[in-house]
Specification:
CATH topology of the domain at 59-241 in chain B: MetI-like fold
CATH class of the domain at 59-241 in chain B: Mainly Alpha
Number of strands of chain B: 2
Radius of gyration of chain B: 23 Å
Low-confidence stretches of chain B: 280-286
Mean pLDDT of chain A: 92
CATH superfamily of the domain at 59-241 in chain B: MetI-like
Order of helices and strands of chain A: EEEHEEEHHHEHEHEEHHEEEEEEEEHEE
Structural class of chain B: mainly alpha
Helix content of chain B: over 70%
Mean pLDDT of chain B: 88
Strand order of the largest sheet of chain A: 6-7-8-3-9-10
Low-confidence stretches of chain A: none
Largest interface: A-B, 24 and 19 residues
Shape of chain A: elongated
Largest sheet of chain A: 6 strands, mixed
Number of strands of chain A: 20
Strand order of the largest sheet of chain B: 1-2
Shape of chain B: globular
Largest sheet of chain B: 2 strands, antiparallel
Strand content of chain B: under 5%
Oligomer: heterodimer
Number of helices of chain B: 12
């Protein structure tokens, strides 16, 4: 288990990471997600030992490693640019850690063979890094780290240098590989899709602070802050006031638009100022209001973007507020529903699909 | 496209002309002289002889030749020992500092070589800056002999060669990705192991180039031993100059020059054989 306790890092007066508290269990696929400059890489580099910790502690399986040099930590890194040694071939790169630790030759050969098989690099043993594709280099970097059987593997945006198709394929392989080897993975990325697809738990970061640390589904469906709601996927936001609380959930009054209901229990008091948010893909467009609906507003379509799988509608509500609504093209075609720019429409959604965030 | 190729050959004419007139022809003249008899009053008669070469291999001259090699080797090693840490620091410091140090290293090139030699003499002399400062502070009572001996010669050589050693090493280390060092530490190597396994091999191409740029000019240099060396710090370059300008035995001077050239060519051939500088991509070939 890796524990970060009140971990902080500052460069002079500038604080890069503030008061991070996380416990990452053995075998967990943990993801640090955030925009560039949020401090995610700094945390990774502190765990690896490349950055001095300003305050706080790092504990690995109960042992304090806060001030240990990188070569004394049972932690290995897959670097963003892979950092393969250019003068060593694939096997020599992979063998580096074992050679340093003076592992017996026979065992070295055996372990190299098995890790090469594991990452699927058979046939490339004698190639130089310069003669490998990005995806292959990434595998070498992974093999070079995994062969040391570290307690924690740190991955610094390892897919960002690959093109989309390869990155997607590697993503799947990586998550299968992690299950197979059972090593704790800490994965840094700014790509929410990668995080959602692979992680057991995601820590969403902003300005050096973890905003929310939860499993992907929680992060997506129950964002705790406006930043998290906005950063993951897309979201429509309304400022409102809690106008009713009962055993079924809240009623939120949105000025100029009217009340919306949502089935969520919580501790928000009556009259609390909140941000009501809902996902564009959870809303439905119709020409007239359905006979029964739970929540709904009228609006006019201002823009329509056909994106293949989906169509994105930009809708102006009756109070002038602009929201986004997304519809599956397959469903639109199936029900023979087509909407045009300028049309007056009705947007409806269920009370299970909204979320409120306490406005501060 | 034969027309294109012909145009490219036309471009080669001016440098070829230059090299033939000012390099190849003089070279043949020197070799020719070295095989000619010296007449009385230094008149060269074009009669074939190997006498000058036989004399070259006799006692004194052979000793001076070997001594020159030794001086050049020691100079190269000392320069390397000073230049490597400098280049290493330069390669891994901040970009601003890098620019500043680069500027400081190139700065002496804007001053005439002789002026620089005289400046060094004013530094090292008996009443020079260093001795006066040390005596004024009472660290020493008598001036140190900093020049007109081997020490002075080596100081001069190292000073002169330093940029030629620092710059190639710097340029090869500068290309190195810092994350390689982190990767090595990450994989369990100590700083020392990282240096010998990753950093040093990376620097070898520049290091060898630096050695060539230092060793070969030092071997043929005659100005620095003259200015800063002692009476026994005679190098082959000094002997050649003396044969041409004072003794006026041009054929013998030519023979020594030809021999020096052959020695240098052996070293350069070895360099090209093992570290082909035209293959810029080949970083290390152990």
């Amino acid at each position: 288990m890796l524990v970060l306790k009140n971990l902080s890092k500052s460069y002079g007066q500038v604080s890069a990471v503030r008061d991070i508290n996380v416990e990452i269990s053995k075998g967990e696929f943990f993801c640090l997600l955030g925009p560039s400059g949020c401090g995610k890489t700094t945390i990774l580099r502190m765990i690896a030992g490349f950055e001095k910790v300003t305050a706080g502690r790092i504990l690995l399986d109960g042992n304090e490693i806060t001030n240990d040099p990188p070569n004394r930590r049972d932690v290995n890194t897959v670097f963003q640019n892979y950092a393969l040694f250019p003068n060593f071939n694939v096997t020599e790169n992979i063998a580096y850690g074992l050679k340093i630790k003076k592992v017996p030759k026979a065992e070295q050969v055996e372990r190299i063979e098995s890790v090469i098989r594991l990452v699927g690099l058979g046939g490339f043993e004698k190639r130089m890094p310069a003669n490998l594709s990005g995806g292959q280099q990434q595998r070498v970097a992974l093999a070079r780290a995994l062969i040391n059987q570290p307690r924690v593997l740190l991955l610094d945006e390892p897919l960002s240098a690959l093109d989309k198709k390869i990155a997607e394929q590697t993503r799947n392989e990586l998550s299968e590989l992690q299950k197979k080897v059972g090593i704790t993975f800490i994965f840094v990325t700014h790509n929410q899709t990668e995080a959602l697809a692979m992680a057991d738990r995601i820590a969403v970061m902003k300005d050096g602070v973890i905003e929310q640390c939860d499993p992907p589904k929680e992060i997506y469906e129950r964002p705790l802050t406006r930043f998290v709601a906005d950063f993951i996927g897309s979201m429509n936001f309304f400022e409102g006031i809690i106008s009713g609380v009962d055993e079924n959930g809240y009623t939120v009054n949105i000025p100029d638009l009217g009340p919306v209901t949502l089935s969520k229990k919580g501790s928000l008091p009556l009259g609390a100022r909140v941000i009501y948010c809902m996902r564009p893909e959870r809303q439905r467009i119709s020409l007239m209001g359905p006979a029964t609906y739970e929540n709904g507003f009228t609006g006019i379509i201002r823009r329509k973007d056909y994106l293949g799988e989906i169509t994105k509608f930009t809708v102006e509500l009756s109070n002038g507020k602009i929201i986004t609504v997304v519809a599956q093209n397959y469903l639109l075609q199936l029900s023979n529903e087509f909407y045009d720019i300028g049309e007056q429409i009705f947007v409806t959604w269920s009370k299970t699909s909204g979320e409120v965030i306490h406005a501060r | 496209m034969p027309g294109k190729i012909r145009e490219q050959y036309i471009l080669l004419v001016p440098p070829a002309f230059w090299l033939i007139v000012f390099f190849i022809i003089p070279l043949f003249i020197v070799v020719g002289y070295s095989l000619s008899l010296t007449g009385t009053d230094g008149v060269i008669s074009l009669r074939f002889t190997l006498e000058h070469y036989l004399v070259s291999f006799r006692g004194m001259y052979l000793t001076i030749f070997l001594k020159s090699l030794l001086y050049a080797v020691i100079t190269t090693l000392l320069t390397l020992a000073i230049a490597f840490p400098m280049a290493y620091y330069m390669a891994f410091t901040t970009p601003r500092m890098k620019m500043l140090l680069m500027f400081l290293i190139i700065l002496p090139f804007w001053t005439n070589f002789l002026i620089r030699m005289y400046s060094i003499m004013t530094l090292l002399g008996e009443s020079g800056l260093i001795n006066s400062a040390l005596m004024a502070t009472g660290i020493i009572n008598e001036p140190l002999a900093l020049m007109h001996n081997s020490l002075g010669m080596y100081i001069g050589f190292i000073y002169w060669n330093l940029p030629f050693m620092v710059l190639p090493i710097f340029s090869s280390l500068d290309r190195m990705d810092l994350s390689l060092l982190e990767a090595s530490l990450d994989l369990g190597a100590s700083r020392r192991q990282t240096f010998w396994r990753i950093t040093f091999p990376y620097s070898v191409a520049g290091l060898v180039a630096g050695i060539v740029f230092t060793f070969i000019p030092t071997l043929g240099n005659f100005v620095i031993p003259e200015f800063l060396g002692g009476s026994d710090n005679l190098m082959i370059g000094n002997v050649i100059t003396a044969q041409y300008l004072q003794v006026r035995n041009w054929p013998f001077g030519s023979a020594l020059s030809t021999l020096l050239m052959l020695v240098v060519m052996v070293f350069i051939s070895l360099y090209i054989r093992f570290f082909d500088p035209t293959k810029s991509k080949s970083m290390v070939s152990f």
